[in-house]
Design goal:
This protein is α/β, with parallel strands linked by helices and 327 residues long. The chain has two domains: 163 residues, Bordetella uptake gene, domain 1 (D-Maltodextrin-Binding Protein, domain 2); 116 residues, Periplasmic binding protein-like II (D-Maltodextrin-Binding Protein, domain 2, 3-Layer(aba) Sandwich), CATH 3.40.190. Helices cover 44% and strands 19% of the residues. It contains twelve helices and ten strands. Strands 1, 2, 3, 4, 5, 6, 7, 8, 9 and 10 form a ten-stranded mixed β-sheet that branches. Strand 1, helix 2 and strand 2 form a beta-alpha-beta unit. The longest helix is centred in the first third of the chain and has 20 residues. The protein is globular, with a radius of gyration of 23 Å. 45% of the residues are buried. About 3% of the residues have low confidence.
């Protein structure tokens, strides 16, 4: 006996839906832990904020967030791993300004991908000024003293950053240009070892994000010469901004880090991650610990981060050719 089509549809449709749900697997993020790639070594400023927020984010999405450090090429290696990952919401990357909006302009061979096209923004993680620090026995008390020393001995002083084409490198090269000095750049694979090497006298100075610099300055193991933002840090009130110094009016460089996901990640997942990230960044512990380090929590939509990153890239397109960044 033939089964009427209407009755057949009633039987078959639920079976098809069940099969489709089984094929799609568990709803995000219940299938497995979420990996947050940090494109630098453990112990640096990006690693610090990723671990601080990662735990809070985990509680809000109901899934473990695992931090994976993938260092190399100023952040390009870590970003490449994120670009190559499945766009399923289980891989994110802490994308710093350097790798997102500077690196491709300075080291195009390291970027066989386009960070602004091959990743999608999730949300701003944080912003922070940088601090120029020196070894404590360097015979200077102020940045003006250092300029005199550098002019008297061109190229003999060295400074470290977390890599060629990073915002730290860009900030110091702008400072060198405006001050009329030559200081030799020593690039590292990440920021964790830099402070130790300045303290150990392997290098004379370093440009560090505030989160990395503040603890050492406050403990007296490093000497601060200036802050790159327009306001002094509450945690280092006696350290002047470069903007305050003669001849450097208007100097203002901030670092930033956003969370990004592989291109093609479903917008519904991005929206959930953005909401969870903003809530995590509003956590009182997160805000307090960031404030201690001179950093500010991010906020806003995924689209807002995308527009901001595009604007930063456009600005750096004009700035980079005027500086000596290709070491």
């Amino acid at each position: 006996m033939a089964i009427p089509r209407s009755r057949l549809a009633l039987v078959v449709a639920p079976l098809l839906l069940a099969c489709a749900a089984h094929a799609q697997g568990p709803a995000w993020p219940s299938a497995k832990p979420v990996t947050l790639i940090v494109p630098f070594t453990a112990g640096g400023s990006v690693d610090f904020i990723a671990r601080l927020v990662g735990g809070k984010l985990s509680a809000r999405i109901g899934q473990t967030v695992v931090i994976e450090n993938v260092a190399g090429a100023g952040g390009a290696v870590g970003l490449q791993k994120a670009v190559n990952a499945a766009p399923d919401g289980y891989t994110l990357v802490a994308g710093p300004d350097s790798a997102i909006a500077i690196g491709k302009l300075v080291s195009p061979a390291a970027y066989r991908f386009d960070p602004l096209k091959d990743l999608v923004p999730v949300g701003m993680l944080n912003t922070a000024p940088m601090v120029l620090v020196s070894r404590t026995d360097l015979p200077v008390k102020t940045y003006a003293d250092f300029v005199k020393l550098a002019k008297a001995h061109p190229g003999q002083q060295t400074y470290a950053t977390s890599g060629v084409g990073t915002v730290l490198h860009l900030a110091m090269e702008q400072l060198k240009q405006r001050s009329g000095i030559f200081v030799t750049h020593v690039p590292y694979r990440g920021g964790a070892q830099i402070a130790n090497d300045v303290m150990g006298k392997q290098v004379d100075l370093a440009m560090l994000v505030s989160a990395s610099a503040v603890p050492h300055v406050r403990s007296g193991t490093l000497k601060a010469l200036g802050v790159t933002g327009k306001q002094r840090l509450a945690s280092l009130p006696d350290v002047p901004t470069f903007d305050e110094m003669p001849g450097l009016k208007g100097y203002d460089v901030l670092s930033w880090t956003g969370i990004f996901a592989p291109k093609g990640t479903p917008s519904a997942i991005v929206d959930k991650l953005n909401a969870a990230l903003n809530d995590a960044l509003n956590d009182s512990e997160v805000k307090a610990r960031l404030a201690e380090q001179g950093a500010s929590p991010g906020s806003g939509s995924a689209d807002a981060l995308g527009r901001f990153a595009q604007a930063e890239f456009a600005r750096n397109q004009k700035l980079v050719p005027t500086l000596s960044l290709k070491d």
